[in-house]
Amino acid sequence: MSVIDKSTSRDAALQEAFGAEVAELYAQAARGEANAALQRALELRSFLAVAEEQVSRVRDRVHAATAADGAMDDLSAKDLRWDADWLEAALAGRDGYTAALDELLRTMPSPTQAAAPRRGLSPKTAATAPPAPAVPRAGAVRTPRP
């Protein structure tokens, strides 16, 4: 199943922020009509959908293993510890994606607000950083210079 079809805990916030259903937002992006904020929001939402799916899978696995009608001989502390580690990792990922998406939605300009040009900045001017110093290759032996 595509991430477009999966619901997430932040879909309502996306719909409110961008004024359209999630499927329509993805359609806008596919047509090349999405601004940078929408593109980033949809990317974060896609990651969030996968992370929330992982949380659900582990939760369901733990529930099945500890069901009241389950066989006691099938319980394994090792498996439950493994699932606890997986759950911790999945929740950490989910928390990171929700925080990033919430921050993006909080700080982005409103859809009606046009991007105002900044005084003193010329769109023709581009700054480039100096090239980074060459990094010695891994495993290379330095030889003393005369």
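Second entry:
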Amino acid sequence: MLVDEVDAVEELEEAVRAGSWRDAGSVRGATRRLVHRARTWEPWSPAGRLDEGTETEEEFVLTGELPVVPPLLGDGHGSRFHDLQAAAEMVREVSEFIGQTHFAVPAERTGIFYRYAIETGDIASWRLGRGPGRLTTTMAVRPGKVIDSVPRALDFRTALEMDGVACGTATASVVFLPPVAHRIQRAQSRPVIPGPRRPGAAGAGGAGAAIRPAEVARAHPGDVLIHSPSEAKHGRLSVSVSVHGHAPVHAGGSPAGYPGNGHVPALVQLETLRQTSLLTAGRACGLAPSRSTLGSLRVNFRGYAEPHLALRCAAVAGLPGRDGQGRRQVPVALTLTQAGRAVLEAVATVVEDF
């Protein structure tokens, strides 16, 4: 394989500077390096590469250091592990760039992740060290639904390494919507709420009974996204979600990375799943949150989450078990809902590591 590394890195840096990389704001201050591993000596060109039914696959390597303090947090981490959602965020951040520069996807089309899954294998590789871990994501990207040589979707199969040690695998699917289709999809996903918004709604920043940061492996109250938990009965628990103050906001009032759309960023939703999973595993099954992390996560996104409407996350813990190293683990099924509709559905595995 050949590596056109210099061109890929220069293109990526230029996209960030120009603001055309849609989610550059979410990794401000982080260094990402993208490499395209070309399969031929011939100069790469997207024109004419794809036809209906083509099975063309391209390989990329994305590397970057994971911050000790994740982007959503304030002054501290509170966990012994790197956050699993960091790998999802790295792939999501470059998906549109890869689609536009290597698969001829028009720039006006919006990339939307609708499915993501990650499996760590062994969580030992995700333990925090003295400084940031270097995450290397090797991505095999395959186009799908090709019409007139332009894919409507991309499928990602990824292998993960932390500081040179294999630490998991992941898959993701992204669909690219033309402007009109995206506007229709966006409008259809908005819930219709009769009457005025309820005062103190979770999405508007209201809060009920507080959850201690230690119960979700965070260091400060301001880093806790969930509150008002129901009593854990038969492994079932639900919480309200507060998003304001956790998602960077543009001058126009939209969360960073979604100019003009204003929906809750995926990173906030994934952190909500992480916190709810740890809280459920701790209260229902007795796992120590400070010693626990997600060993796996599968997410199906069903629609957008509106930042000004109440969000609720429901969780159901499964039967506790042990992983291959004898660590206690608990599967947790989760549903994030808003106005009676599912925003996403997920299954996580919480693993306790002593």
